[in-house]
Design goal:
By secondary structure, the chain is an alpha/beta fold. Helix content is 54%, strand content 11%. It has three domains: 84 residues, Arginyl tRNA synthetase N-terminal domain (Gyrase A, domain 2), CATH 3.30.1360; 269 residues, Rossmann fold, CATH 3.40.50.620; 179 residues, Isoleucyl-tRNA Synthetase, Domain 1. It is built from 22 helices and 14 strands. The longest helix has 25 residues. The protein starts with a helix and ends in a 9-residue tail after the last helix.
Length: 589
């Protein structure tokens, strides 16, 4: 039970004993910085039930609390606010319980299970900067939900069918000369992506030629021979043509192998992959059931729709007139299949904000179909990531490739680290590993510290700054703490029950206390930014402590022991919170 719950019970007890009044609720808030106190009771709402002045009420409750709670040292009353000063014993008691707890901040696993979908790429190109934000968000939210006490399954649905992959396949047949990832030394996703770009180049040339022959732009785009050939290839794939299906399997496998390399570099993983080639027919039977229940209706042309105008949305097609599924149909069927597969209570979809409307409609349809778990669906909507150089376009090959960006971040970390001269005594292998940890930490933190819904302008150099609200600044503080622990050549594990805290020590413990509730809040809001910015505040508080008190140099052994323990606890929480963001921390820097 936290201090607020204990105090709330004691305040109700005080009011009942002194004024013979039963309170339903008690309101607390943090004490303002210009007043002495750790937590403040707001007495104004009580005056509706208790006929006295706010100051007299505050003093009566304050006297009662001091008399009945040894962890309350004193109080002061300012108008209708009772500012409570907690004794050092309270903070030492809390600290003694959590300082060596490896699971501090994390809740025990409950009954609720959630599936988090993220990444979900197409198989015609490598992962790019947009996918990086998606992966980092999805992975981090998964870890935060786990820490909040939920069972979590990570998944992706790979868009492995359709005209996009046929374009790459056709271009490889035309221009590839039997190239493979092995023969070229290229990652498979990059090789296939190159042919997607080559298709687009050939397509544009044909469109230009047809326009020169007198066709309109729309006619030329529709009649370009290479596009018609790609459409024919798609028809053959859908008909199960052996040669086309074999090429499709081969080229998709190249891409999957490439994706796996990138995921390993990013440090993300999945419990289950779904493939659109297996799910695109799902949902049709659900549409038939919905028609019987009058949830859907059929138009004269045979297409099936749902009318959501009463809900402030519009009419949405769920089955074409020729009986083929649309994306909405597939998403309905896939959601239902996932619940069958994993018996989950809810799902989180990590998808860009251009799909906001799609998910509003999807969730509403699933609710109308009567699925209770549809109340627990969440669209983790996020904004685009831009670079100072501008927007990205896949077809033109101007995308910021994920692997290239990871390499660039490692190189940037190397350059800045070497300029700062922080790496004396490291072997070359140790240096390379450190550059990777710093570079990836910079990238992940820069992206995750921002509210997911906001658009980001990503600046690689700014992200690898060793000062300010950055990953490397926090990593450096962690490494500094590990240096303190290495130098502390004594047993600092024994608990300390009697100790007079100074203000810096108390503020640091207060910040540690916020960690469990921050994890819960981040889970409720699906926001890694809350974890990132909590960690930054903790690190700022530690650096203020480090600069204002003597840790290893103090003559007082109890003081030295306690301050080393406090430093270790801060380091443990930094490591724990950064793990929720998917960021490693180096032992030395």
């Amino acid at each position: 039970m936290n201090v607020q719950d204990v105090l709330a019970a004691q305040v109700k007890e005080a009011v009942s004993n002194i004024f013979n009044v039963t309170l339903e609720t008690v309101e607390f808030q943090p004490t303002r910085k210009d007043f002495e106190g750790d937590i403040t009771l707001v007495t104004f709402p009580m005056l509706r039930q208790i006929k006295t002045s706010p100051v007299k009420l505050g003093e009566a409750i304050g006297d009662y609390l001091v008399a009945h709670n040894q962890e309350i040292e004193k109080f002061n009353v300012v108008q209708g606010f009772l500012n409570i000063v907690l004794a050092d014993a309270y903070y030492l008691n809390f600290f003694g319980k959590v300082k060596d707890d490896p699971d501090f901040g994390k809740a025990s696993v409950g009954e609720e299970s959630i599936m988090v979908e993220y990444s979900s790429p197409n198989t015609n190109k490598p992962l790019h900067l947009g996918h990086i934000r998606n992966n980092l968000l999805g992975y981090s939210v998964s870890e935060i939900l786990k820490a909040s006490g939920k069972k979590v399954y990570k998944t992706q649905i790979i868009n492995d069918r359709g005209i996009h992959i046929c374009k790459s396949m056709l271009a490889w047949q035309r221009f590839g000369n039997d190239e493979t990832p092995e023969s070229t030394g290229l990652k498979g996703d990059k090789l296939v992506g190159n042919y997607y770009v080559k298709f687009d180049k050939a397509y544009k040339e044909e469109v230009s030629y047809l326009q020169a022959q007198g066709k309109t732009e729309d006619e030329a785009k529709a009649e370009a021979p290479i596009l018609k050939d790609a459409q024919e290839m798609l028809r053959k794939w859908e008909a199960g043509d052996a040669e086309v299906v074999e090429l499709w399997k081969t080229m998709n496998q190249w891409v999957y192998d490439g994706f796996e390399e990138t995921y390993a570099k990013l440090g993300v993983d999945f419990d289950k992959n779904y493939y659109e080639s297996n799910t695109y027919l799902l949902g049709k039977n659900v549409v038939a059931e919905g028609l019987e229940k009058d949830i859907f209706y059929r138009k004269d042309d045979g297409s099936v729709w749902i009318d959501l105008t009463d809900e402030g949305l519009d009419e949405k097609i769920v089955l074409r007139s020729d009986g083929t599924a649309v994306y909405m149909t597939q998403d309905i069927g896939t959601a239902i299949q996932r619940v069958k597969d994993y018996h989950i209570n809810g799902m989180v979809y990590t998808v860009g904000n251009e799909q906001d409307y799609h998910f509003k409609v999807l969730f509403l349809i699933l609710k109308k179909l009567g699925y209770e778990w549809a109340e627990n669906l969440y669209h983790l909507s996020y904004g685009m990531v831009d670079l100072p150089s501008g927007k990205m376009k896949s077809r033109e090959g101007t995308v910021v490739d994920a692997d290239d960006l990871i390499e660039e971040m490692t190189a940037t970390a190397k350059n800045i680290s070497e300029e700062l001269g922080k790496l004396d005594g490291y072997s070359e292998a140790e240096k390379e590993e450190l550059y990777r940890i710093i570079g990836l930490g910079a990238l992940k933190y820069y992206i995750l510290k921002v509210d997911p819904r906001k658009r980001i302008l990503f600046n690689p150099e700014e992200s690898v700054d060793f000062q300010g609200n950055t990953g490397p600044f926090i990593q450096y503080t962690y490494a500094r703490i590990q240096s303190i622990l290495r130098k502390a050549e004594f047993d600092y594990s024994n608990p300390i029950f009697e100790y007079s805290l100074n203000e810096k020590e108390k503020q640091l413990i207060k910040q540690l206390q916020l960690y469990p509730e921050t994890v819960q809040l981040a889970a409720e809001n699906h926001s890694p930014a809350l974890i990132a910015n909590y960690t930054y505040e903790l690190v700022k508080e530690f650096n203020s402590f480090y600069q204002n008190v003597t840790i290893l140099g103090t003559e007082d052994e109890t003081e030295k022991n306690f301050r080393v323990q406090l430093s270790k606890a801060v380091g443990d929480v930094i490591k724990s919170s950064f793990a929720l963001l998917g960021i490693q921390v180096p032992e030395r820097m």
